[in-house]
Specification:
Layout: E1 2-6, H1 13-27, E2 31-36, E3 50-54, H2 68-83, E4 87-91, H3 93-108, E5 116-120, H4 123-126, H5 135-144, E6 147-150, H6 153-162, E7 169-171, E8 198-203, H7 212-225, E9 228-233, H8 239-248, E10 256-260, H9 265-269, E11 274-277, H10 286-293, E12 298-301, H11 306-309, E13 316-319, H12 324-335, H13 338-354, H14 357-373
Parallel strand pairs: 1-2, 1-4, 2-3, 4-5, 5-6, 6-7, 8-9, 8-11, 9-10, 11-12, 12-13
Helix pairs in contact: 2-3, 3-5, 7-12, 10-13
The structure holds ligand GMT.
Protein name: N-acetyl-alpha-D-glucosaminyl L-malate synthase BshA
Domain Glycosyl transferase family: 192-350
Pfam family, one: Glycos_transf_1
Length: 374
């Protein structure tokens, strides 16, 4: 198959899922064309069968806002025509499903009908897509897609609640390549924690929905009774929240390590004892799945699709959004009971196997084939 993947190039979950999916499809011999505003962060261009097409946005003095969505639809049109693509797969409704719809209309003038799959990732439905500036256009472009997938059951229900969707939404969960987490732990634990100290970790784009303040408060409470360190990976607007917290709690400065964006996430995750994800909203929680694949139990909120990934009492613990007290209690309980910790580490790893790439990719391929047979 010749597949066009439309996605964000950044470290956000939707871009990562799109990139990993494309690379696996390319490994399997499919020709995969990424269309994005920049080279996707994890895309390995040295692999066979991978193409990248950058959306060029032409500026003009008249434009206050260069029309990206028009440039995107023109790029999709050109790439489909030039490379004779079979299928388009949009990751995130805004603007990909919208621009792909217009590209499809343009292609009809050339007698080319190409099926479009839209995968909903979360914030396109629960946050940005709700805004009156986007709401109707999002609903329209979802309905115009030939197939719709959602990364969790919870997101499917949110979509049905918030929009008038006229088509079936198929849940295809996010996935992980568990093999990548089998790497030997070359990274030294003693670089992050002293002997006998536990390591709590949080990985995110540090946006307000991640509730960084809760991460910090949980750690502050836990640290009072458990010798521990907190590692935070990622960059984003709420770095300011962290800096404010540290200036109010200077005694914790040496206890909290800020690593920014890292390339070898797996190795660092493997050092941790507990992953914290107290998010306000989370359609799936890919970061929690990555932690589990590294054998790290998760203490999370019950937002969106998280409880579908983090099983309360088995792979970690789940509490209400904002319930810092209960999350602290769970963290202390887990970190002070070696037997429970070891058990939950194993359960976390085992549960991550269910979301392994080998179980999920065939679902996308079956969907592509179904659309192509039509
Ligand atoms: O978490 C973010 O803010 C980024 C966002 C994205 O679209 O890149 O993540 C969403 O998609 C991920 C991949 O499907 C999910 O794992 C995240 O839970 C989801 N984020 C939210 O719903 C807030």
């Amino acid at each position: 198959m010749k597949i066009g993947i439309l996605c964000y190039p950044t470290y956000g979950g939707s871009g990562i899922v799109a990139t990993e999916l494309g690379m696996i499809l390319a490994n399997q011999g499919h020709e995969v064309h990424f269309i994005s505003s920049n080279l996707p962060a994890r895309l390995d261009m040295t692999r066979a069968n991978i193409f990248f097409h950058k959306v060029q946005v032409e500026n003009y003095p008249l434009f206050k806002f260069p029309p990206y969505d028009i440039a995107l639809s023109s790029t999709i049109y050109q790439v489909v025509k030039l490379y004779d693509l079979d299928i388009l797969h949009a990751h995130y409704a805004i603007p990909f499903a919208y621009s792909a719809f217009y590209a499809k209309q343009m292609l009809k003038e050339d007698n080319k009908d190409i099926p479009l799959i839209t995968t909903l990732h979360g914030t396109d439905i629960t946050l940005v897509g709700q805004h009156p500036s986007y709401n109707k256009a999002v609903e329209f472009s979802i309905n115009q897609s030939d197939a719709i997938t959602s990364v969790s059951e919870s997101l499917k229900q949110d979509t049905l609640k918030n929009f008038h969707i006229k088509k079936e939404i198929q849940v295809i969960n996010n996935f992980i390549d568990n093999k990548l987490f089998d790497v030997e732990n070359i990274c030294c634990r003693d670089q992050f924690a002293n002997k006998g100290e536990k390591i709590l970790i949080h990985v995110s784009n540090l946006r307000p929905v991640k509730r960084i303040q809760d991460v910090l408060e949980i750690f502050k409470n836990v640290e009072k009774s458990i010798n521990s360190k907190l590692v935070i990976i990622g960059e984003g607007p709420d770095m300011e929240v962290i800096n404010n917290f540290l200036s109010d709690n200077p005694e914790l400065i040496t206890k909290i390590r800020l690593l920014g964006k890292v390339d070898d996430l797996q190795r660092i995750l493997k050092l941790a004892d507990v992953f914290l994800l107290p998010s306000e909203q989370e359609s799936f929680g890919l970061a929690a799945l990555e932690a589990m694949a590294a054998g790290v139990p998760v203490i999370s909120s019950n937002a969106g699709g998280i409880p579908e990934v983090n099983i309360n009492g088995k792979t970690g613990f789940v509490a209400d959004i904002g319930d810092v007290e209960t999350m602290t209690k769970y963290a202390i309980e887990l970190l002070s009971d070696e037997k429970l910790l070891a058990e939950m580490k194993l359960n976390a790893k085992e549960n991550a196997e269910l979301f392994d790439i080998k179980n999920i990719i065939p679902q996308y391929i079956a969907l592509y084939n179904k659309l192509l047979e039509k």
